[in-house]
Structure formats: C-alpha cells, structure tokens
Design a protein that fits this description.
6-stranded parallel sheet, about 300 residues, Dihydrodipicolinate Reductase, domain 2, Rossmann fold, about 35% helix, alpha/beta, 8-stranded mixed sheet, 2 domains
Amino acid sequence: MSIKVGVIGTGYLGQHHARVYSEIPNVELVALVDTDEKKAGELAQKYHCKAYSDYKDVINSLDAVSIVTPTITHHKIALDFLKAGKDILLEKPMTVSVAEADELIVEAEKAGCILQVGHIERYNPAVTAMSGMIKEPLFLESERLSPFLGRGTDVDITLDLMIHDIDIMLGFAHSPVKEIKAKGMSVLTDKIDLAWAWLEFENGCAAMATASRISTEKKRMLKIFQKDSYVFADYQSHEIRRYFKKDGEVLSETINPEKKEPLKQELADFIRCVKERKRPVVSGMEGRNALKIALEITDKIKNTK
C-alpha cells in the first residue's frame, strides 16, 4: 500500500522534499501547496502531481505531509492536519514558541499521529557514525558558519542555524541544561546574525556553540571530548577523525562513512514511522526541547545588548 503525501511550501527546501518523496518506493506524491500558484504549478508538473494554493484543499487527500513554510505559519497548519488525523513532518524550528510546540505535542498524542521535526543533521552520516563512539561527553564544541544567502532571515540565527547544533548536543549530553550564557549581534538584518552560546548541563558536561550567517566560508563541524578520546566530525565532508588513548599510547583513525543524502534518510525514516507507527528519532518533544534552548539563548542575547 502506498502512502499518499503532500508538501506544503515549495521554497528552497520544499522543492527538495518534493524531489525526495518522488523517489521513495511506495510513496505517492499527491499534492504541492504554495501561495505562489505559479511556483507550485511548475513543480507539480515536474513531479506529476497536483498544485494547490490553499493547504485546506488537500487535507483529506493525504496520509502524511511535510510542512515547509515560514516558521510563523507552522502552528496553524500543523494543528489543522493533526486535528484531521494526519501524520506530519514539521520543519525546524518547530514553532515560534514553546507553548505552540506543547499544543502540537498534545494534539498529536490525542490524535495518535506521528509528529516528526525536521532536524536533518540527525541523519548526517557523520552524526550517525559518531553515535556509537560517544559515551559520556565532557565538552562539546560546534561551529556552523555560512555566507549571507538571504534565506532564513525571518528568524534569528539561533533558530535558523544554531538550533541544529543545540539538538545534536542535547542528544549527546543526555542531561537537562542548567545554565546558559550567550552573546550575539545583528549585522546585515534586523535579526541576530551571529551568536555564541555556552551551555552547562546538570551532569557536568558543557558545550560551546558558534553560529553565523555572514561568514566568508561555509563551515559545519562538531568536536566532542570525553575521557580518553576526542572525536571531530565535519558535517560537510561527512569525515570523522578520532583520537583515543590505548595502552598508554594516543592513536588516531579517520572514518569516512558511506555518503548518503541526509534529507533522503530523514524522509525515508518519516515514511517508515508512518507505516510502522513508530516514534520518530526527532519527535515533537525533541523538537520542542531544542526550540526551548534556542529561544532562551535568543532572549539572553537580546537582553544583554
């Protein structure tokens, strides 16, 4: 039995959702929705499905949906689909507030629906390969730098880019955050364009995250330090370098996991959860927890200017 899916929002990322769904076996891409009817129509023609300008017109035609619209619209659209009993993949940031995220989590549980949040780095081959190497991290450090592209400027850098690393760090630390320190600034937009955050966890682990959308280079990396080992991951090349102590010696190894498209892995996992009624790796709760920390970092920056 094929799963009938739709994509709400056919912007930069929405186009890729449409492409990937069209390639997944036993998935039927039924509808693309965008307020820009011309854009939706052109994409629908390419993927042999129908285009709509109002998402409410397709709710009853779908089993599952990707919501890839501006963050401010996420809550309303997601709530309408959940109330109709539909499974959803909601792009990050999940919502604009923790209260909205909580409402979606409750509604999904009530309706028995899958609610997955699009934290795509969880499906990066480097992160997947690292997972088995990390036991009790002592310190994590991330850098996520991008040249200014003009995308994602409807939200602060903390919610646009840094939230990816927050989600990964929360997953590896396995502990609540007890203290946050942060600095940041606006440069090219009226939102925060650069941000630095220091997190301390209740279990003693600490983390430093740097994010910028006005860099001269694109950089995506994560370092994790733990007793007797240090692991470095390059999100772009998917390469991992590990330094570890064994029999009094410090050894090193380079790991190059099989290259896989993270979005394809993410959407295939979403479809698997829909079919098998399994809890997603990044459920509404993980999305909510990352959002909560990102918003607290944002508040710290805005209140210390």
